[in-house]
UniProtKB/TrEMBL annotation:
Keyword Transmembrane helix: no
Stretches assigned to the Thioredoxin domain: 60-249
Protein name listed in UniProt: Thioredoxin domain-containing protein
UniProt cross-references to CDD domains, sorted A to Z: DsbA_Com1_like (cd03023)
PANTHER family documented for this protein: DISULFIDE BOND FORMATION PROTEIN D, GLUTATHIONE S-TRANSFERASE KAPPA
UniProt-listed Pfam families: DSBA, ScsC_N
InterPro entries: DSBA-like_thioredoxin_dom (IPR001853), ScsC_N (IPR041205), Thioredoxin-like_sf (IPR036249), Thioredoxin_domain (IPR013766)
GO molecular function, one term: oxidoreductase activity
Keywords of this entry: Disulfide bond, Oxidoreductase, Redox-active center, Signal
Amino acid sequence: MPLYPFLRRLALCLAGLIAVGIAFPTTTWSSSQIDRTELHREIRSYLLEHPEVITEAIDVLRARQAEQAETELRSVLETRRSELVASTVDPVLGNAKGDVTIVSFSDYQCGYCKRMLKPLMEVLKQDPNVRIVFKELPVLGPMSTNAAEAALAAHMQGKYRAFYTAMMEHRGALTEAVLRDTAQKAGLDMKRLDRDIKQKSIAGTLEKNIALATALGIRGTPAFVVGDRILPGAVDTNTLMTAIKSAREAS
């Protein structure tokens, strides 16, 4: 093999290792191998003359890492598909027997989550075969947890949509007074709410949602799972509709 193609390949390997911070151990070379000092000199010279090799190596490394991450994500989605789309405790809006499911992770103190109210409702209007599963994911403090618990209690009364809509339309700080006022306006039985909110099943559901989000690499809200895709952050109606189309075609 000509020297420079060999050095280029070797330099790519070394640059990739350097990119991930791998140290080279001291090695004893036999007399039949290339002199180590000479080899180091040639590699150093080549990298100085062709620094773009390091960028190429980093690009290759990132591409491989992205491919591996996607493979791992697909595996997690497949393993936990039932937990995502078929849990009997999660609120569901839209067509209960829809052929495509959007799984929504949200927090009632999240401004970007509030922006998603309109796109999600628009999707339900445009596509009668979509169902939306709501995973309460309180990540912004104690009031977020209180609101998520109230939302699941509202679901037990068949009032989830009214409560969810009112909460997402609220602007300003979320306090206990605001939470109770919103629940009343949504038509909840307040005595039953106070009783149901203490049920262990509600706390258990939130714990499972947090564990599921962690397994999927979801670190904030909002986030949406559509088919084999995760859409992080706020998106528009067209993005959701495109994801729905892709999921439908892949099924």
